[in-house]
Amino acid sequence: MRADRLVSLVLLLRQRGRLSATALARELEVSTRTVLRDIEALSAAGVPVHAERGRHGGFALLPGFRTELTGLNHDEALALLVAGSRRGAQAFGLGSALASAMLKVVDALPESHRDTAAAVAERLLIDPETDLLSRRPVAEEVPGPIAAEVRRAVFAGHKLRIHYAAVDRTPTWRTVDPIGLVTVRDQGYLLATRSGADRTYRLSRILAAEELAEPAQRPDRVDLDRAWQERSTRFRTGGDQVTVLVRLDPARREDLVGTALAVLAEEADADGRLRLEVTFQDARHAEWALWQLATDAEALAPQWLRTALRDRAAAVATRYEASS
Fold it and tell me: What is the pLDDT of residue 121?
């Protein structure tokens, strides 16, 4: 770990020039005392790090110390930088490792590619933290030790013991055969089997994890994209899900689709409004989603949903009548 940190320190100084001990500590997520010890170690190893004193002082490097990835062309370098801007690594506990890797990639680029690729990458934004309506995605934190244990079991092909908190259930220990990791909208999932049956676990609900020495019972090769699609299909078509027919203002289509599990059918009425057949996780989910759209949406079926929305609207009207 210290060797990786020393490399990252050198690359930070190469790419950003003079930096204070405080700035380096912030970037490397260590204390300033650790930074000073690392600076001493680099100097002892012959790396030309020197201190510049004064109000705007800090540490800087003399020119040198570079290796070049001469096989990379401009577009390949740009692709690496854009990939490094995605937040999926956070879901697997690899955020700091990704940041360190991207420093090394940028430093190793040929001089002719480095500046132009970095400048072009600034013009591209992938998966911003908020959309046009200022809605932020739900961030899920996965403790580093848990994410690391899960990753080790997945990569090594070993069984994994997890303490898992399913929704509305008491957390329990279970032993699974891990297949792979998937991230969707910044949420991480473990695909696994348990007693031969497919299982999907949200990483943020794993309270503890332990890699076992026993080999996992799983195929040597896996198509994660296909496995995820199959599990998603089963999820959308099982449980207490309900199907709703909705008449909708086209301007609110994305709001509805963003909360529904799936759109089964869609057509436009003569007046321009949309008629959609959508599925929701359960009755409560359907009622909540349609209520958010107010008069921009009308539930045409089933009747129980129309009744529930009418009763809710009547209760609100009664409340405001009583206060007027």
Answer: 58
